[in-house]
Amino acid sequence: MAEQPVAKARRGRPRQAEVARLAGVSQTTVSLVLSGNKQGIALHPDTRARVLEAARQLGYAPDPAARRLAAARNDLLGVFSFTATFPTDVAHSYYPILVGVEQEAVARGYDLVLFTGSSAAPGRGGGGAAELNRVRLADGCLFLGRHVPADPLRRLVEQGYPAVHIGRRDELEGLAWVGADYAAATAEVVRRLAALGHRRMVLVCESDQALASVDRERGFRAALGEGELARASDAGPGPVVRVADPAAEITASWVRARLAEGVTAFVAEETDTCAAWRALVAAVDAAGLTAPADLSLALLGAPPADLAGRTEPTGFDVPKAELGAAAVRTLTALLTEGGADCSPLVPCAFRSGHTAGPPPPAP
Fold first, then answer.
1. What's the whole-number mean pLDDT along residues 47-54?
2. Topology (CATH) of 76-180+322-346
């Protein structure tokens, strides 16, 4: 093989034209060799060797953007968070979900691009049609948030853009979603409390009517409708309390009033802020009561990081990392198979905790 000129030092990414000059061949030949000659065109072994040696000398690597454009895809998955800042703090309730997303994306050969509702141009509200259209930079996108702008997201789906929401969103026709089975997990918590002897329970929810709350309430009411619980729940005030301002409405006097009515177990839901659980715990403390000696407490989800040092609450754990991974699997199935026939619900594991016990003896 003829001696090749020594490659000169250069700055920036080497191009195929430079490889062609160094190897003494056409750029078309370089492209054929470096792409694996999928067309099966006859090339002399020496020609192929010269191209590969020139590429090695120059440090040539294929431009991933160009390759992806040629394949009409980016191998990028978007993650859009409907929050002011992307939830990467380990204390944030979404953080484990993002860990699951990242791990599954890496395992499947995808990179991630992150979008937030606050990354729009100044003066524009987050989450509008223009902001959501930015996700088209990616092949498909995962959406994360308790409250979403339904109309812009619906338009994306109607236009055939692959999208998956992490959390139930079946009110938007055609939108794929993956969520935790809150209804079944909540019903299990109620049954466990009933097995301890509780007959009167109250569920404290935030008043925003998010679907995660709706599912928890559905499971709570379904379990209350079973056996002796059904008869007990018919007496007294309703078993579900929705509060707009938990800190102001769930107070020590409120807890004592419910106890006087015969309630022995209090249940709250996990949300982004865990406002209902925070208010309930603070009210019990302010009333000078403890769980499970004076009453039982249960949390439908995990406590926020700043309350993790307290007694572990009875309830269930949301498999957040698995939710993220399942969402990626669903999205990649949409991209490669047109969809997958699998359940969108991920089961939650009961957590026995230490805040629930038999109801105290009647005075």
1. 88
2. Rossmann fold (3.40.50)
